[in-house]
Amino acid sequence: GQQVMQIPQYQHVQEGEDFTTYCNSSTTLSNIQWYKQRPGGHPVFLIQLVKSGEVKKQKRLTFQFGEAKKNSSLHITATQTTDVGTYFCAGVGSGNTGKLIFGQGTTLQVKP
Amino acid sequence: DTGVSQDPRHKITKRGQNVTFRCDPISEHNRLYWYRQTLGQGPEFLTYFQNEAQLEKSRLLSDRFSAERPKGSFSTLEIQRTEQGDSAMYLCASSFGLARDEQFFGPGTRLTVL
């Protein structure tokens, strides 16, 4: 079945440093979504990427979708303590259900 | 608050007991999903409803699990004869009508089976 792998599992950075998490799918994705889950919270939608090679920015966050639509990345510039949490990529499953196939997530810790 | 709500937020039960969780999606959302999340993992898809119709069930959903969405609004997830391996966070999410629409997650129900 479709699998989504995400690395690294954990990342500790000093406030102000950059952070990147990578996502790879075993199959070509129609689109990919990114979610953030704060400690003790639930996943919250960040963005969706649809087109091959697409790049989207949200303030300090940059999201990329690979040319082959099998990989994606999230880069945070100059991390802040408010960026702490777990970042998940999720591939939208085949068919019309819209079910999400989540990666394992990358947990970001930011030291002030 | 007009987001997705779930009840209860926490449930502790003994092995072998039945439990039922409720999810109230955002009112205008047609699609409703149930996911299960264990510590250190991403949410795993369990089942999906389009209005009142249950259109897909994961192989993870054994015959001890059943879900309903009787009037196309709220949904319930029942687990019969609970096992310790059922301990997890059960998340409900809803979205508008398209498969690619963003999903809005509820706060989850944390189940602990003793």
Helix segment tally of chain B? 0
Helix-and-strand structural type of chain B = mainly beta
Average residue-wise pLDDT of chain B? 94
Strand content of chain A: over 45%
Helix content of chain B: under 10%
Tell the overall outline of chain A. globular
Order of helices and strands of chain A: EEEEEEEEEEE
Q: Can you describe what's shown?
A:
- The complex is a heterodimer of chains A (112) and B (114).
- Chain A starts with a strand and ends with a strand.
- By secondary structure, chain A is mainly beta.
- In chain A, strand 6 and strand 7 form a beta hairpin.
- In chain A, strands 2, 4, 5, 9, 10 and 11 form a 6-stranded mixed β-sheet that branches.
- Chain A is built from no helices and 11 strands.
- Chain B has 114 residues and is mainly β.
- Chain B has no helices and 11 strands.
- Chain B has strands at 5-7, 10-13, 19-24, 31-37, 44-50, 53-57, 65-68, 75-79, 88-95, 104-105, 109-113.
- In chain B, the strands form 2 sheets. In chain B, strands 2, 4, 5, 6, 9, 10 and 11 form a 7-stranded mixed β-sheet that branches.
- In chain B, a hairpin with a 6-residue loop joins strand 4 (31-37) and strand 5 (44-50).
- The mean pLDDT of chain B is 94.
- At the A-B interface, strand 5, strand 9 and strand 10 of A face strand 4, strand 5, strand 9 and strand 10 of B.
Keywords:
heterodimer; A: 112 residues; six-stranded mixed β-sheet; five-stranded antiparallel β-sheet; 54% strand; B: 114 residues; mainly beta; seven-stranded mixed β-sheet
Q: Would you kindly provide a brief summary of this structure?
A:
The complex is a heterodimer of chains A (112) and B (114). With 112 residues, chain A is an all-beta fold.
Task: Give the arrangement of secondary structure elements.
The complex is a heterodimer of chains A (112) and B (114).
Chain A: E1 4-7, E2 10-14, E3 19-25, E4 32-37, E5 44-49, E6 55-58, E7 61-65, E8 71-76, E9 85-92, E10 100-102, E11 106-111
Parallel strand pairs in A: 2-11
Antiparallel strand pairs in A: 1-3, 3-8, 4-5, 4-9, 6-7, 7-8, 9-10, 9-11
Chain B: E1 5-7, E2 10-13, E3 19-24, E4 31-37, E5 44-50, E6 53-57, E7 65-68, E8 75-79, E9 88-95, E10 104-105, E11 109-113
Parallel strand pairs in B: 2-11
Antiparallel strand pairs in B: 1-3, 3-8, 4-5, 4-9, 5-6, 7-8, 9-10, 9-11
